[in-house]
Design a protein that fits this description.
This protein is mainly beta and 674 residues long. It has 4 helices and 57 strands.
């Protein structure tokens, strides 16, 4: 039995030794890692040293590195092809390098000549020029290393560092104990201190402060902007950024009284610490608080800070005054706006456009605060842009002058380029156009930061009108009574003017116009002009024609046709010869109106009245007397009604009106001439 026990003991010891030996030879030893520089986000030089317990054959065995997920690893085989000296094992360029595709963030390096002996120290160097980028968040990270001969992964830690915030300053208002304070923190981010949108700024308070457990992001600002969110854990507020902050940037954090931070109850110096995600090492500052009875007024605005440029609010401001005292008395707050009278504050004050000053103070029965004042600049009106061009402008020129003015002082940008604004707020710029559409995006920003945008579209259209004339056919062509102007224009939407008078153009571009000259000259100009309305581009054709004016009125007994100054018209009745008197009677309205008279008829008195300038003629149906400018004259034949039309003796009417009458007995034609 004792022999059996001794045998089993020997087996256990042998198994333990074998296990120990296998563990030693299955993994590398003495792993160390250093990174230089260790700055977050920097390209680092990585030096990895370890002891191998097995031979590593040149050109065959590999060393493997698995970087943390937060590291940025370039295409290693690409980097090796372009920078083979970037990777060294024991000072010699590696025989090869590349990614291990089935393992994330893992690369291999092939052992160079002459290989490595067991128990030798291995130094693997990845130079900075290989562009292996450190994690962007500072902290401790793990790198895993193994070889083909010792496949068990061994890990070591390396540290990524960052800078700290600089120039931390703090002020509390009031600096008294047990008071609802406004706390301002100022600092500068460091060389590596850029904090991206969505990352955090942290503010930690020493015990003694009374902190709100449900903090409201509306009453804290970071560089004038409310954070996305605010949370508290123990004595530390986490402020999540709404906008990124750059490196070496000035940062101001303000906690307003309504945020609810109460100063300690005991006087003394109290520590506040500030840090960020990118600079996580806390930096501290002390704030002193002292015991003193006080009354004071907290002024809060909505928005919390000027939301425009140059200290302007670009929305109406609501001002709230909050009286506070650490005594048992009840304070009352008084205020006045501009030159108004002091009144008791009850409701929020609304500050409208303009520059306005609010003066205020609070008092109790025993304490009176010194008067304070705050001036607000409010401008809620965006600048107006007036331009020399319509929003959609056509032109045939290769350049365009954009000229205009602003309604107030400010800056103007066209397609991102700033133009000079003169003292009268005018501006101009000349721009080259391409064929077709050209877009100009105008942005006007006034002193307060109000912004107006305008889109101008300029279309370069080089279309030239084509004017084809059918009549006149040539210079000195003869026309009577009117000059026929006829032709075609392309495009059909062009305007056509004849002697500066616009004529109608149909959908095919055809036009026809009867030009009646104002003068009786035999030589008449005919000037035609076609204008392309989109751009104003035009073409012209000019003629001089022979013109004969027919100034007669012609009638014929038995015919309804009447020729008035060369133009034939149709009457509804015919002139006729009175059988009794042998006189020619004509329809009074047609003839009189052709000669330029106004005709009216009074059916009660059966009186016909003819008027033109200083001539007045009265005729009565059936009467052989007429009244001409008040003088009674006799007629050869009385006016009569036939076929529902009034007829009058032609010669009397024409000659009384001042016209010459010729009668052709053979053709029974009447010609009336001035």
């Amino acid at each position: 039995m004792k022999k059996l026990f001794a045998f089993l003991t020997m087996l256990v010891m042998l198994f333990s030794v074998l296990t120990f030996v296998r563990g030693v030879t299955n993994s590398i030893g003495n792993l160390t890692i250093s990174v230089s520089p260790s700055d977050r986000g920097a390209y680092g030089e990585y030096k990895i040293t370890f002891v191998t317990h097995s031979d590593l054959k040149q050109g065959y065995d590999r060393v493997y590195l698995q970087f943390p997920q937060e590291s940025t690893i370039p295409c290693t085989s690409c980097a090796y092809a372009h920078c083979s000296d970037c990777f060294l094992i024991n000072g010699t360029r590696v025989a090869g390098a590349g990614p291990v595709y089935d393992l994330p963030k893992t690369v291999y390096f092939t052992v160079p000549s002459p290989g490595i002996k067991a128990n030798d120290t291995v130094e693997l160097l990845i130079k900075q020029s290989a562009s292996f980028q450190n994690p962007t968040t500072p902290g401790d990270y793990i790198l895993k290393v193994w070889t083909d001969q010792e496949p068990e992964k061994v890990q070591a830690t390396f540290t990524i560092t960052s800078t700290t915030i600089q120039n931390l300053g703090a002020s509390a208002d009031p600096e008294f104990t047990n008071a609802n304070i406004m706390l301002s923190l100022d600092f500068t981010t460091g060389r590596l201190g850029d904090v991206m949108n969505g990352k955090n700024v942290y503010v930690r308070f020493q015990d003694g402060f009374i902190l709100p457990q449900k903090p409201d992001a509306n009453y804290v600002t970071i560089n004038g902007e409310n954070p996305k969110s605010v949370s508290i854990n123990s004595n530390t507020f986490t402020l999540t950024l709404a906008s990124s902050i750059g490196k070496n940037a000035n940062v101001k954090v303000k906690f307003y009284p309504s945020f609810g931070i109460i100063s300690p109850k005991k006087q003394g110096s109290y520590t506040i610490e500030v840090f960020t995600d990118s600079e996580p090492m806390p930096v501290s500052i002390k704030v002193d608080f002292k015991d003193k009875d006080f009354v004071r007024t907290l002024l809060e605005t909505t928005p919390n800070e000027p939301n425009g440029k140059n200290g302007y609010f670009i929305s109406n401001v609501i001002v709230k005054l909050i009286a506070e005292t650490n005594t048992s008395e009840t304070p009352t707050t008084y205020y006045k706006l501009d030159d108004g009278d002091y009144k008791v504050f009850t409701d929020p004050i609304v500050i409208n456009d303009g520059t306005h000053t609010v003066k205020y103070y609070s008092k109790t029965n025993t304490l009176t605060e010194e008067e304070k004042s705050l001036t607000f600049k409010v401008d809620t009106v965006a600048p107006h842009i007036a331009l020399n061009l319509k929003d959609l402008t056509y032109t045939y020129e290769n350049t365009i002058l954009i000229k205009g003015g602003l309604s107030e002082s400010g800056d103007i940008y066209i397609n991102g380029n700033q133009l000079q604004v003169l003292s009268d707020f005018s501006f101009e710029g000349v721009y080259t156009l391409k064929e077709g559409q050209n877009f100009f995006h105008l942005i006007a920003i006034d002193v307060a930061g109000n912004r107006t945008e305008k889109l101008l579209t300029v279309i370069l259209d080089t279309t030239t009108p084509v004017l084809t004339i059918e009549s006149p056919k040539s210079n000195f062509e003869k026309f009577s009574n009117f000059i026929l102007v006829k032709g075609n224009v392309y495009p059909s939407n062009c305007f056509v003017l004849v002697n500066d008078k616009m004529v109608e153009v149909n959908g095919n571009g055809d036009f026809e116009y009867k030009l009646i000259p104002n003068s009786k000259n035999n030589m008449q100009p005919v000037n035609l002009k076609a204008i392309y309305p989109l751009t104003g581009k035009s073409v012209e054709q000019k003629f001089v024609v022979m013109y004969v004016f027919d100034n007669t009125v012609k009638l014929q007994v038995g015919s309804k046709n009447i020729s008035v100054f060369g133009e034939t018209k149709t009457m509804d009745v015919e002139p006729f010869i009175d059988k009794t008197s042998g006189r020619t009677l004509v329809p009074v309205r047609f003839v009189s109106e052709a000669l330029g008279f106004e005709v009216s008829y009074d059916s009660k008195t059966r009186t016909v009245l003819l008027q033109k300038e200083n001539v007045r003629i009265e005729l009565v149906i059936g009467s052989r007397f007429a009244i001409v400018n008040g003088v009674k004259k006799s007629l050869d034949v009385a006016p009569l009604i036939k076929d529902a039309r009034t007829f009058v003796p032609l010669r009397f009417i024409s000659e009384t009106m001042g016209y010459k009458v010729d009668w052709n007995a053979e053709t029974k034609t009447i010609v009336i001439t001035p």
